[in-house]
Structures are given as structure tokens and as C-alpha cells.
Predict the structure of NrdH-redoxin.
Amino acid sequence: MQKVFIYSAPTCGYCQMAKEWFKENNIEYEEFDVSTDEAKRNELVEKTRQMAIPVIEINGETIVGFDKAKLSELLGV
């Protein structure tokens, strides 16, 4: 099973679109709210060297932004 993580915030429109896309494609994911979780926010900046969201991690590969084509490729959807 693939491990999917999304770093997001409630006010991020692209984050909401990504999570909706996951639901439509029956992709299970774990969400980290960087607006309230300082440790995860710091982890996000350490991984990407920026504060952009969403950041999606699939089996260790990091995608910055909601890139449907890349998500489809990595998740086989």
C-alpha cells in the first residue's frame, strides 16, 4: 500500500482540491495541518526549503502543489 501524506491548511484552496481528488480516486492519505502543527510546519520547510502548500508526499517522493498529472502517475490513477 502506498503511503500518502499531505501538508495543508484549512484556508488553502489547492489543498482542498487535492484532498477532494484523493477522495474521488479512493486514495487514503494522512493530513498534517501546518497552520496549527509547528513541528510539521518546520518539517515541511526543511523538506522543501519553502512555505508553499499543499505539499504531497507519496512513498518518499515530494510534490509541491496540486499536480494532478504527477499524482496520477505516482498513484497509478
In short: The longest strand covers residues 4-8. The chain has one domain: 4-75.
